[in-house]
Design a protein that fits this description.
The chain has 153 residues and is mainly alpha-helical. The chain has one domain. The protein has a 3-stranded antiparallel sheet. α4 packs antiparallel against α6. The longest helix has 30 residues. The chain is elongated, with a radius of gyration of 17 Å.
Length: 153
């Protein structure tokens, strides 16, 4: 019954699975940030002296707190990054089949959602710098795409 309504061919099913995976990544990022806001303390200078801690840091900038004094610029850069990812997705066939693009979109959408809702990104994991799952998704996505590109060329 479901076969006749939804995807019939293998390529369509793989695409659907990639989008479900994207949704799960985005939900995981949002859920962990929500839990962090309820259960983790605000970051202090003392915690920054250690290499590893779990505490909240409101990041108004982009990665590694760059442009932290310019939240509007950070939001515009997020929107522009997502638009570029969309353009590349539409124009590049091998990128459409990469799970790396789903990691990139989930990371970018997770952080942009924070910027739209709060005016800053909720970072909660300190490892020399404050990061969150969306930042990890962005790094993993870049690595997957770079590895795949290196194999092609």
């Amino acid at each position: 019954m479901y076969e006749s309504i939804f995807c019939k061919d293998r390529r369509c099913k793989k695409t659907a699975l990639r989008w479900i995976f994207f949704a799960l990544l985005l939900i995981a990022d949002r859920a962990v940030k929500l839990l962090a806001t309820f259960y983790l303390p605000e970051a202090t200078a003392q915690e920054n002296a250690r290499f590893f801690s779990l505490s909240l840091q409101n990041n108004q900038g982009i990665s590694f707190s760059l442009l932290s004094g310019f939240p509007l610029v950070s939001l515009v850069m997020s929107i522009l990054g997502i638009a570029i990812l969309g353009f590349l997705y539409l124009k590049n066939a091998w990128l459409r089949t990469s799970v790396g693009i789903m990691f990139l979109w989930a990371g970018a959408m997770g952080n942009m959602t924070d910027r739209l809702l709060y005016g800053y990104v909720i970072d909660w994991f300190y490892v020399g710098v404050y990061i969150n799952l969306a930042d990890i998704w962005l790094c993993v996505g870049c690595l997957i795409i770079l590895r795949r590109a290196a194999a092609i060329f």
